[in-house]
Amino acid sequence: MGNLRLTSSAFDHNGDIPAKYTCQGDDINPPLKISSVPDGTTSLVLVVDDPDAPVGVWDHWIVWNIAAETASISENSIPQGAVQGANSWGRNDYGGPCPPTGTHRYRFSLYAISDALALAPGSSKGAVLSTLQGKILDQFTLVGLYEKS
Asked: Fold for domain 5-146?
């Protein structure tokens, strides 16, 4: 769409996610850097999921109402004022990569939106994505790979 970017100092796009950020490590979110947020952005939404899960897409982290001026998300943290939704484990937090077999792709999808979302903490990814309709100014997806050792 545009110039919005999401990067990580922990892994490259389509590169391997270090075990530290998975169920085999500390199970904490990796550091993320946000850049080129478009004018008119009120807030950001981050969705981390695994499209290769055997049961269908597995949700790892859903965060919304991230302030538009946020330039980074530190390791093992959520931005001040942001709201977390329910992942596929039913928890409102980050759940790291934990594929049962093989190498899986983990999509870190960032959306720049024109409004804050009026959703309760613990809302589902489906509720978040449906609320985004008509509000997306730009989006970008960073992909990391992981296979259990």
From this structure: Phosphatidylethanolamine-binding Protein (3.90.280)
Query: How confident is the model over 84-124, as pLDDT tens digits?
Result: 999 999 999 999 999 999 999 999 999 999 999 999 999 99
pLDDT tens-place string over residues 52-81: 999 999 999 999 999 999 999 999 999 999
Confidence grade of residue 1 (pLDDT, cut at 50, 70, 90):
low
d(CA 140, CA 19): 24
Of the candidates 82, 67, 100, 102, the one whose C-alpha atom is nearest the C-alpha of residue 29 is 82
Question: Could you tell me which residues are beta bridge partners of residue 41?
Answer: none
Domain residue ranges of the chain, discontinuous segments joined by +:
5-146
pTM, whole model, 2 decimals?
A: 0.97
